[in-house]
Give the backbone structure.
Amino acid sequence: MKPDDMVVMNLEGKIVEGDYKPSVDLASHLELYKGFSDIEGVVHTHSHYATCFAQACRNIECMGTTHADFCWKDVPVTDILTDDEVREDYEKNIGLSIVRKVKESGRTEKECPAGLAANHGPFAWGETVEKAVENAVVLEEVAKMALNTLVLSEKNVMSQFLMEKHFRRKHGEKAYYGQ
Ligand SMILES: [Zn+2]
């Protein structure tokens, strides 16, 4: 597949440019763009470790500063889709379930830059396409660390205070993090 083979779509799901059919996951991506007004990139992968958490229907808890630099609190997993949600508008319902989970947690798309579709895999987003790719890569590393941490310690021993400190020094109005 070459860059020229990519299909350009609008938010209504109509083809703007290109000769091929769009990805089957288009409807999931559209719901994320509609639900999160500040993003311009969505990346969906089946990266190994993040997908393991999605398959286990487990949030990725924040257990260290690598995670806290990236995401405020856990990376949430969606509720398991009902048979009706799978039967009708399946891909759209995946996107809706992710947006719902992030909003229910009271976080913005910047505070929570990724989510896990239950039984399926991770979605990451960002204010640019490049940032969304970076977030997908960081998510996978965070998931790998989390799984290995759970092997060593079943209990999450990171304090909420340290988690807050790390996220807020890098993101938001009072950020002071350098390069
Ligand atoms: Zn997928």
